[in-house]
Amino acid sequence: MWFLALRHLRSRPLQTGLTFLGIVLGGTAYIVFAGMMLGFQGDLVHRLLSLDAHIRISAREAPIKPEQFSGVFGQAQLLDWKRPPTGLHGNRYLSNVAGWRTVLDNEPHVVAWAEQLVRPALIRNGQHERNVTLIGIEPDRQERVTNLESFVIHGSTTELDRAPGLIMIGRPLLERIGAAPGEFVDVVAPNGKKMRMKVIAVFQSGTQGFDDSVVYTSITTVQGLYQRSGEISDIVVRTDDPADASAIAHDLRRLSTDKVEGWQEAHDEVMSVFMMQNIVRNTVVFIIVLVVAVGIFNILNMSVTHKRRDLAILRAMGFDGAETARLFLWQGLLLGGFGAVFALIAGYVGLHYIDQIEITTPFTSGTMTVAWDPAIFARGALLSFGASVIASWFPARAAARMTPIDIIRSTI
Fold it and tell me: Which residues contact 304 (CB under 8 A, 6 or more apart)?
């Protein structure tokens, strides 16, 4: 049967070649497109989790609303605010740090955790000044939670604990304030207290907004600047599987009134971008399947029309409707099978080429990131093969329904 199917395809080489090319291009387009988009998503998630934790536990602050004062002033029916209450209520630090330490030490999915003290500050060097986020960390513990050390281009995070008043800042921020490693700058707290600090390390993550606004130091340095001994504002947590961070955070949230967020909730705007990209990818897949299927349907449908005389001979020789249908299904299988194989090869070559494309910016340099997930190649091959089989079913069914007398009459 496959021999006859191959003879039918070879009898119309131009149409067969164009259809085969469409199958290959369809599968290749999906593999390359999906590899690029998923590679971008993976790279972005890697960057986010390299600098931030899978889960962040912080003090909960909520806006003050007039409704919260209902009943406070007795049973008065009329209450007119000259100026409605505003601002935030709640703590700016964790009140039960010891309790969280015990919980996290006994949580099986928690790999590591580290305490932080995060506060706003002003960094000043001569006439240059910049508002920044001052993050006090425990260098040894922080390294187990994030990959911050991998972004350090001068010095080391471990030096922050060597003495009070040592800081690590991003390269763009260092250039904006006109400072250099080894020099001293002033860090000013909102309460007006100023501390002279030495730049002993520089990092560069490639995320401009982060590198330009974050300063790292030890927890004790921030506590001393703000005169809040023993204060902790955040606990950052690393889990055994980043994908489960949201579910683990949901379970931890039940244990306290503190704010517990997985990285998915903390970066909701990024997840929204991922959802839109997935919608675009699925739309492209649908269009590819449609184009491939229509191309195969056209060539096999035309083959049924032009091969009526051959079909009449085959039916006269004893071919029944099922065998006639299998003849055209074999044509779809041959086109889809070979098309899927060539799509895999072309897709691999295309991704390999894209993976070598260099991307250079004023602050970073590297190459395109693509995803080499075997599932992408499997779906691309299945896309080509499945579309071919499905599209060949309709011409095969039409050919099977034709009776020998109808075939003879249509050829006269």
Answer: 311, 328, 395, 398, 399
Model confidence over 69-119: pLDDT tens digits?
Answer: 566 555 555 566 667 666 655 567 887 899 999 999 999 999 999 999 999
Buried b (16+ CB within 10 A) or exposed e, 211-231: bbbbbbbbbbbbbbbbeeeeb
- The pLDDT tens digits for 297-319 are 776 666 655 555 565 556 656 66
* Domain closes at, from 190, 219, 239: 239
Q: Can you tell me which residue has the tokens 């100023």?
A: 194
d(CA 10, CA 235): 68
In a domain, 293, yes or no: yes
pLDDT band at 405 (very low <50, low <70, confident <90, very high): low
Amino acid at 111: V
In this structure, the answer to whether residues 128 and 222 fall within a common structural domain is yes
**235 plus 279 within the same structural domain:** no
**222 close to 119: Cβ distance less than 8 angstroms:** yes
Residue 391's φ and ψ, nearest 5 degrees, are -70, -30
389 & 288 share domain: yes
Q: Residues 324, 311: contact at Cβ < 8 Å?
A: yes
Within-domain flag for 63: no
Residue 411, amino acid: T
What is the CB neighbour count within 10 angstroms for residue 164? 15
Considering the domain architecture, whether residues 176 and 225 belong to the same structural domain is answered as yes
Q: Is 58 part of a structural domain of the chain?
A: no
Q: What is the largest CA-CA distance in the chain?
A: 102
223, amino acid identity: Q
Domain with 16, as residue range(s), is 2-49+271-411
User: What are 272's two structure tokens?
Assistant: 């929204």
Q: CA torsion sign, 193 to 198 to 204 to 208?
A: positive
Question: What distance, in Å, lies between the first and last C-alpha atoms of the chain?
Answer: 27
The answer to whether residues 137 and 22 belong to one domain is no
- β-partners of residue 132 are 121
Q: How big, in percent rounded to 5, are the helix, strand and coil portions of the chain?
A: 55, 20, 25
Domain harbouring 183, CATH code:
2.40.40
Round to whole Å and give the CA distance between 110 and 384: 42
